[in-house]
Amino acid sequence: MPRTKEFDPDAALQKALELFWERGYEATSMADLVERLGIARASIYATFGGKRDLYLKALERYVEQGDVVEPLSQPGPALPAIRAFLDAYVAECLADELRRGCMVVNTAVEFGSRDPVVSRKVVASWAEMEAVLAGALVRARAQGEIPAGKDPHALARFLLVLVQGVRVLGRADPDARRLRDAVDQAMNAVQI
């Protein structure tokens, strides 16, 4: 008869997510995971697989928890929603005392393209954000909030790159003026 787990796998996954987010993949050892999760190495392997498997599960959880694009899909004026979305990213960066940044961006920087599975997860996260931004910008154009000649998909790619840049700068040097000025200029570019 299989033994029942003496720990909560969901809580352990959340602790792993926090540790990987703080330190990254390479700087987190199995010993670090054992200590932070408070469970035996064998239990980690039996429940989650190896360190890479656990990292992938933690990254998936991070993406699922961060539903920041949902307000962009709501009916009504789109530009205020886009502005609020961008402002929320800046506010989150400025409030991050640990300077963890975004786990997806951190993963992209740490792994690059050397792990195709990890790269697909990063790209999928960005593609989802880009699609939601494009949808909001299509709505903005249809409502006359941006000029008819603007390409909502190109603007969505521009804003995606801006947001990821905000995350990188926020991790290294969260200068409020720099980040807010970037958002101001992006909103000007969208509307002109």
TrEMBL record:
Please report a single Pfam family linked to this protein.
Answer: TetR_N
State a single Gene Ontology molecular function: DNA binding
Q: Does the keyword Glycosyltransferase apply?
A: no
Q: Which residues bind DNA?
A: 29-48
**InterPro entries assigned:** Homeodomain-like_sf, HTH_TetR, Tet_transcr_reg_TetR-rel_C_sf, TetR_C
Q: Which UniProt keywords apply?
A: DNA-binding, Transcription, Transcription regulation
Q: What PROSITE patterns does the database record attribute to this sequence?
A: HTH_TETR_2
Limits of the HTH tetR-type domain: 6-66
According to UniProt, the name of this protein is TetR family transcriptional regulator
From which source organism is this entry?
Answer: Nonomuraea terrae
